[in-house]
Amino acid sequence: MYQQIADALREQITSGKLEPDAKLPTEAELRDQYGVSRETVRKSLAQLVNEGLVVSARPQGHFVRRRRPMVFRPQAEFRKRPYSPEMDAFTTEYAAEGREPRQEIEVAIVEPPEEVAKRLRLEPGELVAVRKRVRYLDGEPFNINDSYFPLALVRDSEIMRPEDIARGANQVLAELGYRQERALDELYVRMPTPEQVHRLDLGPGTPVGIHVVTGHTAEGKPVRVAVTVLPGDRHVISYERQREEPNEGA
After folding, report:
1. For residue 105, what is the DSSP state?
2. Band of the pLDDT at 15, cuts 50, 70, 90?
């Protein structure tokens, strides 16, 4: 029965009958309407919360979640920097949409996770510099962007400072002699780790997309691994592709 209640409320939400920020019927109203127990009503509401359709705001009740997804464009990192003298690419793009972007940046020297060490082809014991960022829109943590660099390459550079780099870390790498000429993109979808749940304040049952980029120089040397964690209820991943003209005579 709790599934039937959840299905009925879900249909009202997806059809627009219950609009964003609308208050759902109270637990008492739902009990009377369906002739079920309090526990059954709570299970149906919990399911909608887990699906990301509803938010619980006790003691006021349950409300339809307002969604304003971020469009994540992996190809955007190859645009010319800076977007503006005062603001980085993320801040500029979303401020132009009338939203309130900000980010928190931390820099640390760490032993790399195994998957990062493998992609960077590091020797055992080699350390990396990591720039950890949580990006916010309208006060809500939207995604994580952690970039790893071999420490030997960036030790005395701007990459080690916990502040925005207007022209981008990729340009700093280029100035150090490690221009990235190609990148390998990998996309994974899974449930988040406890650390990611904490950093992004994720609700129960929220899957995440993981975008891993490994940047290589023209000689094939890997110099950067960027791991972006994208909550599934907050993002649209948008790729742009262009048809390559076939070679003459092909």
Report:
1. E
2. confident
How many C-beta atoms surround the C-beta of residue 101 within 10 A?
Answer: 20
Beta strand ranges found along 99-207 (DSSP E): 101-110, 128-137, 140-150, 182-190
- Phi first, then psi, for residue 160 (nearest 5°) are -80, -5
Nearest partner of 70 among 170, 146, 141, 132, judged by Cα: 141
**How do residues 74-108 score in pLDDT, each as one tens digit?**
666 655 554 444 445 666 666 667 778 889 999 99
**What's the pTM?**
0.70
171 by DSSP, 3-state: which? helix
Specify whether the CB–CB gap between 146 and 131 falls below 8 A: yes
Beta strands in 151-207, from DSSP E residues, in sequence order: 182-190
Q: Say if residues 180 and 217 touch (Cβ distance below 8 Å).
A: yes
